[in-house]
Amino acid sequence: MYKFGNVAVKFSSGFVCSSFENCNMAARVICSLPYEQISNQMAKLDVKTQLRANEGKPQFVLKTPKGTRDYNPKQMAIREKVFNTIINSFKRHGAETIDTPVFELKETLMGKYGEDSKLIYDLKDQGGELLSLRYDLTVPFARYLAMNKITNIKRYHIAKVYRRDNPAMTRGRYREFYQCDFDVAGQYDAMIPDAECLKIIHEILSELKLGEFQIKVNDRRILDGMFEVCGVPADKFRTICSSVDKMDKTAWEDVKKEMVAEKGLAPETADKIGEYVQLKGNSDLIDRLLKDDKLSANKAALEGLQDMRQLFVYLKLFGVEEKIAFDLSLARGLDYYTGVIYEAVLVQTQADGEAQQNDSSESAGVGSIAGGGRYDGLVGMFDPKGRKVPCVGFSVGIERIFSIVEQKVEASDQKVRTTETQVFVATAQKDLLEERMKMLADLWQSGIKAEFTYKKDPKLLNQLQYCEEAGIPLIAIIGEQELKDGVVKLRVVSTREEINVARSNLREEIKKRTCQS
Fold first, then answer.
1. Is 469 helix (H, G, I), strand (E, B) or coil?
2. Is 497:491 a contact under the CB 8 Å cutoff?
3. Cα–Cα distance between 77 and 342 in angstroms, integer?
4. C-alpha to C-alpha distance for 15 and 176, rounded to whole angstroms
5. What is the mean pLDDT of the chain?
6. What residues pair up with 392 in beta bridges, in sequence order?
7. DSSP letter assigned to residue 513
8. Residue from 162, 87, 181 nearest 392 by CA
9. What is the mean pLDDT of residues 109-123?
10. Of 274, 316, 276, 320, nearest to 294 (Cα)?
11. What DSSP designation does 209 have?
């Protein structure tokens, strides 16, 4: 690098020029050096200059945090369709909605999730309050009921929750994700609201057309009675329950090994548990267990079995019994459940299994897609006087469902519209921007979804191509002749049919052709 005047000329040999009288000498030295040496020195100094220019600039990688993701317009369009299906079902059953803060006092959340409490995101101390991001929507709902002294409500709540889990994003598991909750709070006759919850799950999964599914049901009272009959110490009920809950993903022998080796359960006790938790069936299994002398002699188990038998009666009346399975291995690890519990899973067919073997990705296996149960004591934990409000509800695993729907759309090459535009206002001639804007104002005023290009004099071909790519069904084309005649040329994009429509009838024609009234 060299500069003449008061700027230094510096070489690797250490020669420095910093005044006018030395400039000529510097130039002669430069000219005497081999060309390669000059080029190498210049390259090194260019790198140093670049490094100095970058000093102070933040160096970071552009990425989303672990366990999170962005959603493009196509993905959001799919999500919105799924959300609408779920919300419509909730509203069909008379639910109203609420919202709660994204973070809660840490003490509100702790002690409610069993072994999963370690997955709660704690926030840095802010103004003397220890806060945590909400882990689910159920505990905040219980806090809301107790704080506002509400004893009866049928509500749904759709919002994001946070879990410091090891994400498996191809299977729809994230650290930040939406939950869609439906809950009934209030004192009602046994199993009636519980049956409606299962009916709604059946309704949603059927309408989403995800594939064959099954809803597994059990009861915490049956589990606790079974543990007591088998000889499990009372202080180990919850931790053994957590082990049983892994049976949908882990073989019984491995679950037994965890119970004995890690949780200190006697091997013979684990064997007795194994005789029960491997049972699956329907109302016939309930009748069989009611005849089990040891189990039916336990008060909690007997109450659970009797309620389960009544539940199946209601499920048959609702027409959903064929999709329900009584599964004694279903435990659901959350501490707050007190009665019936349930979980919906997709049933893998033989064709699905072969497809998964041919696919190296993990996207085919997504685990449970909905789950819930009865939690009669949770609200009482927050009430100063311990007043209980019986509750039952469920949560839809929206992220897992979205992964399945997105995969199906990709496999079918189905075109997904990312806008709801009904008509595009176009022109084939120049100097008609003001006329297009007048027409748009009139259409928007009438509630019609319309758009146009932001160019003053756009080419008609570009406008037509945009409508075809965006899936916009209609194009309203105006020109000088149309303005004189008081008509608009309405083009159907799919068939390329064109008709002249009187300007006064344009709104009605658009609504009729796009099924919007």
1. helix
2. yes
3. 30
4. 60
5. 86
6. 184, 374
7. H
8. 181
9. 85
10. 276
11. T
Q: What is the DSSP pairing of strand 474-478 with strand 103-105?
A: unpaired
CA torsion sign for 156, 157, 158, 163 is negative
CA-CA distance, 326 to 282, in Å (whole number)?
A: 5
Asked whether the beta carbons of 302 and 296 are under 8 A apart, the reply is yes
Alpha-carbon gap, residue 338 to 332, rounded angstroms: 11
- Flag whether pLDDT at 183 surpasses 70: yes
Please list the alpha-helical segments (H only) found in 55-190: 73-92, 106-109, 138-148
> 67-100 burial, b for 16+ CB within 10 Å, e for fewer?
beeeeeeebebbbeebbebbeebbeeeebeebee
Task: Please give the distance of CA 496 from its chain centroid, rounded to a whole number.
Answer: 39
Distance of CA 391 to the CA centre of its chain: 24
Q: Tokens 């840490």 identify what position?
A: 106
* Residues 192 and 105: beta-carbon distance below 8 Å: no
Place of tokens 């989303």: 64
Residue 166 makes CB contacts below 8 A (sequence gap 6+) with none
Which residue from 214, 212, 211 is spatially nearest to 411, judged by alpha carbons?
211
What percentage of the chain has pLDDT greater than the value 70?
A: 84
Residue 112: both structure tokens together: 């409610």
DSSP string, 178-190: EEEEEEEES--ST
Neighbours of 513 (CB within 10 A): 16
Query: By C-alpha distance, which of 216, 188, 219 is closest to 202?
Result: 216
d(CA 150, CA 152): 6
Distance (Å, whole) CA 404 – CA 353:
15
Give the separation between CA 495 and CA 103, rounded to whole angstroms.
Answer: 52
Cα gap 82→397, rounded to integer Å: 11
Residue 123 near residue 102, CB atoms below 8 Å: no
What tokens appear for 70 in the block?
């962005």
> What values do phi and psi take at 441, rounded to 5?
-60, -40
For residue 426, list its beta bridge partners.
477
- Separation of alpha carbons 144 and 198, rounded Å: 24
How confident is the model over 329-365, as pLDDT tens digits? 998 867 789 999 999 999 865 445 444 444 433 334 4
